[in-house]
Fold this sequence. Notes:
Elements: H1 15-25, E1 37-44, E2 52-58, E3 64-70
Antiparallel strand pairs: 1-2, 2-3
Amino acid sequence: MEAVIDHFGINCSDWAKSKEFYDGVLGFTRQMGFGAESLHAPRPWPEYHPGYYGAFVRDPDGNNIEAVFDGA
C-alpha cells in the first residue's frame, strides 16, 4: 500500500515557525522534533474502525495533527 496524505487543513499565526515544523513533519522523519508536543503515542484506534493506527501531536499553533495508517 502506498503512503498518501488523506486530508489536512492548516491555520498558522507564525509562517516561518509553521513552515519549519511542517517541512520536518511532512518529510516523514521518525523523530519527535520540530516543536511537536506528543498528544497520543502511536497505537491502534479500534474505536475508529479495524486497522486504524494513528499518532497525534500538537503543532506550534496548537493544532492537533494526526498521522494515520489505515490498514482496513
